[in-house]
Amino acid sequence: MARKPPPALLNMNPINQLRAGKLALRLPQLFIGLAGFGFSVAIFIKAGLGAMSWDVLTLGLMKQFGLSYGLITIVTSMIVLLLWIPLREMPGLGTIANAFLIGIFGDLSLRIIPDPTGLPLQIVYVIVGLILFGFFDALYIGAQFGSGPRDGLMTGLMRITGLSATVVRTALEVTVVVIGIAAGGEFGPGTIALSLLAGPCVGFFLPRVTVPLLPPAEPDAGTRQGSGPAASNRGDELD
């Protein structure tokens, strides 16, 4: 028996994201994914064995420009979103929610997660944080409400290159760490583990948690040539 292909990640505009259906499943999945992602980030920070890849870059840029962590993070996100333009990635509810909720849930988690005592527990934190990172990252991407800035870069590259999440995510993580180190960012064994293993973790979970959706219906020939609301509403697709 032929193996069933995994659900596709659709490149939808915000209206189509809401019209695609299964909201009773997708909305909780989105917010649970973001909350869990913030929790996984906090566990990794608490481990104290090296910053996550994008945080290595942020810390390096802080040293270079003397700006705050929050401001550097916002500026970096805006730059990454500019890279969405040639990739034709569509922002959505998930993009906006990512920008605000991960930080909120991360701060809350940092207050309740105890500091590890000793290296063995630090290693456990890294392992648990890595697995949760991959699962919850895939969970909110799989809800198909648009990716966060950095994950949208990954899914856009996946779509235009045809490469897997494992390959693309690993390449991005390693590239960001190298640039961050060059800029003076702090890193450790936890950073290396995440940079090399985040891709395989996301790649393992993503096809298993992606909500299958039908692509938006294409207008028929009469709609393309004719008039009326349908034609005007989809005029941006008539190249």
* Domain module tally: 1
Radius of gyration: 19 Å
Main β sheet profile: none
**Mean model confidence by pLDDT:** 80
The percentage helix is over 70%
Coarse morphology: globular
What is the CA–CA distance across the termini? 41 Å
Structural class: mainly alpha
Number of strands: 0
- Could you state the order of secondary-structure elements as H and E? HHHHHHHHHHH
As a percent range, the share of strand residues is under 5%
| Total helical elements | 11
What attributes characterize this protein structure?
239 residues; mainly alpha; disordered C terminus
Helix and strand layout, with pairings?
Blueprint (H helix, E strand, L loop, with lengths): L13 H6 L3 H25 L5 H13 L3 H19 L5 H20 L6 H24 L6 H13 L3 H18 L6 H21 L11 H5 L3 H5 L6
Helix pairs in contact: 2-5, 2-6, 3-4, 3-8, 4-7, 6-9, 7-8, 8-9
Question: In brief, what are we looking at here?
Answer:
Helix content is 71%, strand content 0%. The protein has eleven helices and no strands.
Description:
With 239 residues, the protein is an all-alpha fold. The chain has one domain (24-210). Helices cover 71% and strands 0% of the residues. It is built from 11 helices and no strands. The protein has helices spanning 14-19, 23-47, 53-65, 69-87, 93-112, 119-142, 149-161, 165-182, 189-209, 221-225, 229-233. Helix 2 crosses helix 5, helix 2 (23-47) runs antiparallel to helix 6 (119-142) and helix 7 (149-161) crosses helix 8 (165-182). The protein is globular, with a radius of gyration of 19 Å. It starts with 13 loop residues before the first helix and ends in a 6-residue tail after the last helix. The relative contact order is 0.20. Mean pLDDT is 80; it is low at 220-239.
